[in-house]
Write a structure and sequence with these properties.
By secondary structure, this protein is of the alpha/beta class. 45% of the residues lie in helices and 13% in strands. Strand 8, helix 11 and strand 9 form a beta-alpha-beta unit. The structure holds pyridoxal-5'-phosphate (PLP).
C-alpha cells in the first residue's frame, strides 16, 4: 500500500498545498497520519491533540520572536502574543490551583532543568527515583546534564510490590541530606503520595520538586492527586495525557515565581515559542471542560481493564495493576524478552516502549491508554486490545488485520485527518 492509498480523501484535500509545493515532505506527513490511523498508539507518553491545538501550532504565531515575559519583552510587536501567554498562564493557574505558572519551557526536560536552576547550585545533592526503577534521564543520568552537574542519590522500588518504599526514601534523605527531593517517574503506575514526600522533605530541609510529566493530565481531569499543594515546584509536560502540544510547564508558589521565571529565561532558554504557548492555552481551555474530566477518568478506567485483561493473558503486571494511564507488563511468563515482544507487537501495529522493571535486571513493556481513549475506545475495546496484544506476542496469524480493523473504527482525525470535536474545542 502506498502512502497515497492510505490517505483519507479529506486529508489529501487539507494538505493539497503542501503536496503541490513539497511532495516529498507531504508523503512523510500524510504517511505519518496513515501510520497513526491504522495502528494503535500505546506509547504511554503520546496522545492525539485536538484540531484546535494543531491549528494554533500551525498559526502565524510561529513567526514571532518574544524573548522575555508579557509586558517586558526584548522584541517589538508582542502585544498579541502577550495576550496569548497571559491566557495560557491564567488557565494553567486556574486548572491546577497554582499561584504561579511558567508556560515557556520548550519540553519537560527544559522544565526540570529550569526547576534545578531555580533551586540548586552545581554539586548539590538531589534524591530522586533511580533510573533503573523508572527515574527520567533528568533525574541523574550520567548521560544528562543532571547527572553531570548534581550529585544524585537514587531511591528504588520495593522488589516484591513494585511500590515506592517511603521508609527507604526517608532513610536515604536523612543519610544524604539532599538539597532537593524529586518525585515523579516515567513508568510508575500508581498514585504518588505527595504528602509523604513533603513530610520527608520537611524533615531534612529539602525542596520538593514534583516531576508530574505523566500524571499532570489526570490531575487536570481530577483523576489523580494534585502535587501543587505539596511541592515547591511542579514540572510537567503538556503533551501526554494533558493532550496539548509538545512542551513543558512549571507551576510554583508565589514566592518562587521570580526565581523560576529567571531560571527559564534568560538562564536556560531564549525566545519563547509563541505558537506552542498559544496551543498550550487551547489545551488548558479544553482540559477545564467536563468532557476532559470524563476523558481523564475513562483513561484510568481503560487502563485498569487493560491491565487486568493482560494479567489474564499471562503477563506479569507490575504492582498488580494501575491507578493511572500507565501499565508496566513483564512478558517473561510468555518466554520472550521485552525487546522481542516489542518487535512482535510493532509488526502487528501495536506501538509501545520497553522500560526498566522494579525487580531484577530485565526490562518490561510500558503502555498507556491516553491515545486510544482520545479515539473514543472504552472498556470493551481494551479487552480486544489485550487479546490482540497477547496474540501478537505469541506471533499468531491475522493480528495485524485485527489491529487495522479496530483502529479503523476509531479514527483519531475522522474528518480530513482534522476533526477532533472533543474536549470542548471548536473544530477549526
Ligand atoms: C517524568 C518525566 N520527566 C521529564 C520528561 C521529559 O519530557 P520531554 O521529553 O518533553 O523533555 C518525561 C518525558 O517522558 C518524563 O516522563
Amino acid at each position: 500500500m502506498t502512502t497515497a492509498d492510505a490517505e483519507p480523501a479529506a486529508a489529501t484535500a487539507a494538505y493539497a498545498g503542501l503536496r503541490r509545493q513539497d511532495p516529498e515532505l507531504a508523503d512523510v506527513v500524510l504517511g505519518e497520519l496513515a501510520r497513526q490511523s491504522t495502528s494503535l498508539q500505546l506509547i504511554a507518553a503520546e496522545n492525539f491533540t485536538s484540531q484546535a491545538v494543531l491549528t494554533a501550532l500551525g498559526s502565524p504565531l510561529a513567526n514571532k520572536y518574544a524573548e522575555g515575559y508579557p509586558g517586558a519583552r526584548h522584541h517589538g510587536g508582542c502585544e498579541l502574543v502577550d495576550v496569548a501567554e497571559r491566557i495560557a498562564t491564567d488557565r494553567a493557574k486556574a486548572l491546577f490551583g497554582a499561584d504561579h505558572a511558567n508556560v515557556q519551557p520548550h519540553s519537560g526536560s527544559a522544565a526540570v532543568l529550569a526547576a534545578y536552576a531555580a533551586l540548586l547550585r552545581p554539586g548539590d545533592t538531589v534524591l530522586a527515583m533511580g533510573l533503573p526503577y523508572g527515574g527520567h534521564l533528568t533525574h541523574g543520568s550520567p548521560a544528562n546534564f543532571s547527572g553531570r552537574w548534581f550529585d544524585f542519590v537514587g531511591y528504588g522500588l520495593d522488589p516484591e510490590t513494585g511500590l515506592i518504599d517511603y521508609d527507604q526514601v526517608r532513610a536515604l534523605a536523612r543519610t544524604h541530606r539532599p538539597k532537593a527531593i524529586v518525585c515523579g517517574s516515567i513508568a510508575y503506575p500508581r498514585h504518588i503520595d505527595y504528602a509523604a514526600f513533603r513530610a520527608v522533605a520537611d524533615d531534612v530541609g529539602a525542596h520538593l520538586i514534583a516531576d508530574a510529566a505523566h500524571p499532570v493530565g489526570l490531575v487536570a481531569g481530577g483523576a489523580a492527586p494534585n502535587p501543587v499543594p505539596y511541592a515547591d515546584v511542579v514540572c510537567a509536560t503538556t503533551h501526554k495525557v494533558l493532550r496539548g502540544p509538545r512542551g513543558g510547564m512549571i507551576l510554583c508558589r508565589g514566592e518562587l515565581a521570580e526565581r523560576v521565571d529567571r531560571a527559564v529565561f534568560p538562564f536556560t532558554q531564549g525566545g519563547a515559542q509563541m505558537h506552542t504557548i498559544a496551543a498550550k492555552a487551547v489545551a488548558f481551555g479544553e482540559a477545564a471542560t467536563p468532557a476532559f474530566t470524563a476523558y481523564a477518568h475513562q483513561v484510568v478506567a481503560n487502563a485498569k481493564v487493560l491491565a487486568e485483561a493482560l494479567a489474564g493473558e499471562g503477563f506479569d503486571i507490575s504492582t498488580g495493576g494501575t491507578d493511572t494511564h500507565l501499565i508496566l507488563a513483564d512478558p517473561a511468563p510468555q518466554g520472550v524478552t521485552a525487546a522481542v515482544a516489542r518487535g512482535r507487537l510493532a509488526a502487528a501495529g501495536l506501538v509501545l516502549d520497553t522500560c526498566a522493571l522494579p525487580h531484577g535486571d530485565g526490562r518490561g513493556l510500558r503502555l498507556g491508554t491516553a491515545a486510544v481513549t482520545t479515539q473514543g475506545m472504552g472498556e470493551g475495546e481494551m479487552a480486544r486490545i489485550a487479546a490482540l496484544f497477547a496474540g501478537a506476542v505469541r506471533e499468531e496469524a491475522k493480528v495485524r488485520d485485527g489491529v487495522r480493523e479496530l483502529a479503523g473504527r476509531f479514527p483519531p482525525y475522522p474528518s480530513a485527518g482534522t476533526s477532533a470535536e472533543r474536549g470542548g474545542s471548536a473544530p477549526a
